[in-house]
Automatic annotation (TrEMBL):
It comes from the Eukaryota. This is Uncharacterized protein. InterPro entries: Integrase_recombinase_N (IPR010998). It comes from Rhizopogon vesiculosus. GO terms for molecular function: DNA binding. Keywords: DNA-binding. The keyword DNA-binding applies.
Length: 199
């Protein structure tokens, strides 16, 4: 009562006669059969049941963590929702995912997305790994790589002259000194390991 007075809330209670509030009346008398008859619901199609179950499982799968695999799974779940697809990772759904995602990111990266999705979802869908390995998914991915992938650009390996230039350009700041120390250490260590392999 104090809260109502403090915040100026006007609360009114009205009685609704039994004949106008039949569901509540039946519930208060534990007449469950009557409640079901009064409040009947239409049956869903198998397609609707499957979709709704998949959406529910999708919500169960989404832990709020920042790991890469969770990010891949969240992308998959969002794409399924966006296209009103069941979350069940069938070859059809995974191939649609591959094609759609390949239009938005480098197709070579889609492989790691698929691995992350399967890793996180196979607890709920035991056939996920088989769907991932299906010919339909493999061919869709291969086709997207051929159609959209950019050629790999490889850099030339560092030479002794490159390391000397980095040392000469060092300004003496903490970050520059740290970078050149890591560069020289890595370069010399790899050179040492390579020379050991040759002997």
């Amino acid at each position: 009562m104090d809260v109502l007075l403090e915040y100026g809330i006007d609360l009114r209670v009205a009685h609704i006669p039994d004949e106008e509030n039949v569901v509540a009346d039946a519930l208060s008398h534990f007449q469950n059969e009557r409640v079901l008859a009064l409040h009947s619901r239409d049956a869903w199609t198998l397609e609707r049941l499957t979709l709704e179950r998949s959406v529910a499982l999708g919500f169960a799968l989404e832990p709020s963590t920042a790991s890469t695999y969770d990010s891949h799974l969240n992308t998959y779940l969002n794409i399924c929702r966006l296209h009103s697809r069941a979350v069940d990772p069938t070859p059809d759904t995974l191939s649609f995912f591959v094609v759609w995602l390949s239009h938005h990111i480098e197709p070579r990266s889609v492989d790691s997305y698929l691995s992350g999705i399967v890793s996180r979802i196979e607890v709920y869908y035991p056939d996920a790994r088989a769907a991932r390995r299906s010919q339909l998914v493999a061919r869709a991915l291969r086709g997207c790589k051929r159609r959209f992938s950019q050629p790999v650009k490889r850099k030339f390996p560092l030479s002794r002259m490159d390391v000397d230039r980095a040392l000469a350009d060092c300004t003496g700041s903490y970050n520059d000194c740290l970078f050149t120390a890591m560069l020289v250490t890595g370069f010399e260590t790899l050179g040492y390991m390579y020379s050991d392999l040759g002997s």
